[in-house]
């Protein structure tokens, strides 16, 4: 069966006649001449090969086939209206998708409140989160696989815009039953004989040297007894008493009742995080997010 080529004006004409049950009323509604409207309906019926309307000089009635076509015409017109609306909204950044790459520290820092506020002002934008290494974020930005990244310092690739985001000191995280849990602050050397629970070398390669250098500054190498891929697992193992960990102070935002967080008496190194975007060639939605981030970072 050949599929006829239909025009939107033909659908609108039929819907008007079917709803008005009057060619005179439909012509007035559409602001067209009645003879032209009659020709449009006749051409539509000829294309479809069915009679949509029973019409006499005194009345117009919709046929069974016409009722089926009316329902589908309503749906098609609504879909077209929605397509136009979404396309126009995407052009000005009101709809679309924002693909965000992030590393572990970002999830406990200001990233989520920022995304929540962005969603509040852009409720139709879909935000997709992808946990990944910081250097992978640079690669994925250049390959247009993500739109924004939250990363630690690494060898930033060309064509990547880098905005300083946070600076947070390292703190110790331990079980609330740990022998040092009651102390207000601790010395890093107090942990020299403790088992450490850290991120695995493959995923946390950019962060582990900071911990190792800090420990070396007081004369020991950390005994990494357990490794995990993500902070949530690390914290669960620490809460179970399997060791301690060092983490940026954003861990305070994680809401971990079974853990305690201790500052060091020593000057703790700062862990820097950055917002990454492409320098150009991003979507209107991404542009809205970049502008929002630039404003936040300029006033913070």
Sequence-ordered SSE layout with sheet pairings:
Layout: H1 8-20, H2 23-30, H3 34-48, E1 53-55, E2 60-62, H4 64-91, E3 96-102, H5 104-108, H6 111-121, E4 125-131, H7 134-142, E5 148-152, E6 160-175, E7 185-186, E8 195-199, H8 208-216, E9 223-228, H9 231-239, E10 245-248, E11 259-264, E12 270-278, H10 284-299
Parallel strand pairs: 3-4, 3-5, 7-11, 8-9
Antiparallel strand pairs: 1-2, 5-12, 6-10, 6-11, 6-12
What does this structure look like?
The chain is an alpha/beta fold. The model has no long low-confidence stretch (mean pLDDT 92). It has two domains: 84 residues, Arc Repressor Mutant, subunit A, CATH 1.10.10.10; 204 residues, D-Maltodextrin-Binding Protein, domain 2 (3-Layer(aba) Sandwich), CATH 3.40.190.290. It contains ten helices and twelve strands. It is elongated and about 100 Å long. Strands 3, 4, 5, 6, 7, 10, 11 and 12 form an eight-stranded mixed β-sheet that branches. Helix 1 packs across helix 2 and helix 1 crosses helix 4.
């Amino acid at each position: 069966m050949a599929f006829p080529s239909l025009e939107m004006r033909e659908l609108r004409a039929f819907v008007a006649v079917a709803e008005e049950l009057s060619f005179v009323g439909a012509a007035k509604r559409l602001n067209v001449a009645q003879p032209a409207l009659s020709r449009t309906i006749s051409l539509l019926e000829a294309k479809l090969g069915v009679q949509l309307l029973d019409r006499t000089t005194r009345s117009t009635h919709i046929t069974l086939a016409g009722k089926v076509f009316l329902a589908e015409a309503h749906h098609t017109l609504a879909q077209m209206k929605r397509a136009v609306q979404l396309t126009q909204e995407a052009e000005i950044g009101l709809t679309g998708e924002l693909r965000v790459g992030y590393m572990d520290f970002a999830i406990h820092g200001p990233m989520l409140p920022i995304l929540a506020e962005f969603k509040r002002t852009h409720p139709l934008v879909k935000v997709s989160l992808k946990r990944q290494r910081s250097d992978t974020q640079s690669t994925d930005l250049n390959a247009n696989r993500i739109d924004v990244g939250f990363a630690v310092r690494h060898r930033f690739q060309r064509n990547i815009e880098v905005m300083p985001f946070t600076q947070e000191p390292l703190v110790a995280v331990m079980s609330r039953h740990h022998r040092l849990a009651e102390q207000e602050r601790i010395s890093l050397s107090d942990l020299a004989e403790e088992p450490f629970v850290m991120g695995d070398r493959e995923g946390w390669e950019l962060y582990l040297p900071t911990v190792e250098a800090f420990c070396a500054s007081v004369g020991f190498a950390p005994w990494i007894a357990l490794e995990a891929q993500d902070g949530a697992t690390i914290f669960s193992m620490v809460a179970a008493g399997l060791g301690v960990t060092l983490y940026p102070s954003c861990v305070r935002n994680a809401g971990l009742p079974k853990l305690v967080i201790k500052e060091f008496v020593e000057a703790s190194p700062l862990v820097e995080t950055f917002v990454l975007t492409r320098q150009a060639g991003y979507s209107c939605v991404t542009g809205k997010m970049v502008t929002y981030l630039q404003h936040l970072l300029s006033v913070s």
